[in-house]
Structure formats: structure tokens, C-alpha cells
Amino acid sequence: MNHTTNQSVLQTLGWNEHFANLFAPYAEQGYSVGRITLEHKRIYRLLSEHGELLGEVTGKLRYEATGREDYPAVGDWVVITARPEEKKASIHAVLPRKSKFSRKAAGDSVEEQIVAANVDTVFLVNALNNDFNIRRMERYLILAWESGANPVIVLSKADLCDDLEQRIADVESVAIGVPVHVVSAERGEGLEQLAPYLGCGQTVALMGSSGVGKSTLINKLSGAEQQKVNKVREGDDRGRHTTTHRELFQLPDGALMIDTPGMRELQLWEADEGFRGAFDDIEQLAEACRFNDCQHGREPGCAVRAAIEDGSLEKARFDSYLKLQRELAHLARKEDARLAAAEKDKWKKITMQARSKKPKR
Ligand SMILES: Nc1nc2c(ncn2[C@@H]2O[C@H](COP(=O)(O)OP(=O)(O)OP(=O)(O)O)[C@@H](O)[C@H]2O)c(=O)[nH]1
Ligand SMILES: [Zn+2]
Asked: How does it assemble (predicted)?
């Protein structure tokens, strides 16, 4: 492959100048680059200028990793040496992420797990039928603002809604400045509004609870025939067909869609910035409180309570603000405890090493 073909293959995967600059020092040393489409037990599927490869991280990367977040995630650009004849690659490094969605890793450990990286736009999907939930939307907005991707609200199942105006007004009251689009995937209505986010090389992720219509939407955006769009059929060496699962895949118009199970059930992870972004209205009100550290309880001169009393701030939104704030504070305390334990552990190891180096008497 000549240089221009390589570049154009990468561009269809979302490569751009930003990543090219980060990659430059590696390029000089002869490394290639790939984009992760699937992770399973630390085996990675990736797309590259050499086609699709199975990747494994090098011992050096593993050695230098301090936590799960240092390993590749779906959507990551990784520095590789490719062995195209074996369809394999060694993964040497992960390029710094432009955006990332994190959640607490499963189990008791308090560890960050990245479920999607380098997402340009996240579609926050909420159904307009009985499942409609404005409080859930606030939670998704925190995650979106924290991630660094641009949130876009997609209100689905428009065909099942008869008070559309009211619903849109409700959404706009919590999603200040966020684009809102109303669609019915089933009827194929409103989907053209999503086109601007789905240009060639753009990466889009879907977030929304079970049953809101994410799969239906993906199917519609992928063209009608494909039932399960993230299952791509392809021939293997023996000419039989095998089904390959991917969590990052290309839509016909050239966008990259990320649909990981992790995105579908994202729990809050540390999100101070995201919290401030999602509750910018309340944060701004709070600036007018008499006391800097006003808790908006019984303090005199509280601008937030005044806004609730005069009806300009909804009580339910304020309650939600407090609840999410508590949840994040709880998470932060657990994380602090984990860091303290890790620090203690480290010193224990160092002390033990020092002891073992002492000459035996
Ligand atoms: N009336 C109506 N029904 C829809 C629409 N979109 C999806 N549905 C239906 O809603 C149900 C759930 O849709 P899915 O696309 O499977 O939802 P999902 O978000 O992918 O759900 P999970 O896979 O559980 O996360 C299905 O029965 C769809 O047929 C729509 O625009 N209108
Ligand atoms: Zn106050």
C-alpha cells in the first residue's frame, strides 16, 4: 500500500491531524497504528491499514500500566507492530484519548473502566412513551459532559407520544444548550436530523437504558436489511461464513458507531466537571448565594432556594442535584480509600524489598 492509501484507510476510521500529531514520534520509529473495535479478556480486535488484526498488549505496556484505564478500550487508537500474514499485532501504546466514557469496574474494586474512547458525539436516547424519565436524562448528561464528547439528545418513539411539545420543553429545561431531536426509528421519521453528526470519520456512541430503541435506531441508520448490525458476516479461509462481533463499526455513510454493553449500563464514575456541566443553571444561581459555601439549606440569602420559591427552579431538579451530588461524594470517598490502601500497599512492598536486600546475619 502506498502512503496515500494508508492515510485514506485511516481517515475512514476517524484518523485526523490531532491523532497524527500524537503518533508522529512513533511513526518515525516505524510503528503502525490501529483502532480498537472490540476487547475481550485483553485480546483486542483492531482495524488498521493492514486490515483487521487481533492484537495483544506487549509485556512492557502491561508492566507500565497502573490500572485498567491504561489498557486499550473500544475506540482507542493504538501504536502497533503488525504481522499481516498472521493477522496479528502487538500493541505497544495507547494514544492519549480525546474523550472517554468511564464507569466503575464491576465487582468490589473501585477501579476506572473505560468503555468507549475518542467519541465525538454521544446520542442520549430517551423514549417518548411511558419510560420517559427526565431524571435519568440528567444522569446521562453528567456522563456526557464528563466524557469530552458532545451530547445530543435523541427522543425516540415519537409515534407513541401525544404531548410532544410538553416533553420537549421538559427536556430543554434540564439540557440547556444541548441539541434535541425527535425521531421514530420504527417509522423512519426524523432520522435525517442526525445526518450532520454521522459524517465520514465521525465517531458516535449511543447511550440509553434498555428498550428505548437503540438497536432499532442502529438498524435504521445501517440500512434496513441488517438485523444485528454489529455482527458482520465475512468469509473465512475455508469459504464458510463466520459471524464476527464488533463494538465499533462503520455505518454506510461513513460514521463510526460505538455500541458497547458498557455504554448501555453506565454507572456514574468521578465526574466533577460533568456534574457542573449538567447543572450549570444551579451552579450559576449558587454564585449569588450570600455565603460561598452555601449548602442551600437554611442559610440566609440563599439564591437557589429563592429560585425554587419564585418558581424559576423546579424543586424536583434541585432534589436531583442534591441526590447526584451525594452519590458522587460517596464514590469519591470510596476512591480515596482505595488510593490510600494502594499507597500503603506500595510502601509495604518497598519496605519488604529493602529488608530482603539486607545481608543475612
Ligand atoms: N413504536 C415504536 N416502537 C419502537 C421504536 N423504536 C423501537 N421500538 C420498539 O421498542 C422495543 C425496544 O427496541 P430496541 O431497539 O430493542 O431497544 P434497545 O434500546 O436496543 O434495547 P436494549 O437492547 O435492551 O438495550 C422494540 O420492540 C422496538 O420494536 C419507535 O420508533 N416506535
Ligand atoms: Zn444557597
From this structure: Monomer. Associates with 30S ribosomal subunit, binds 16S rRNA.
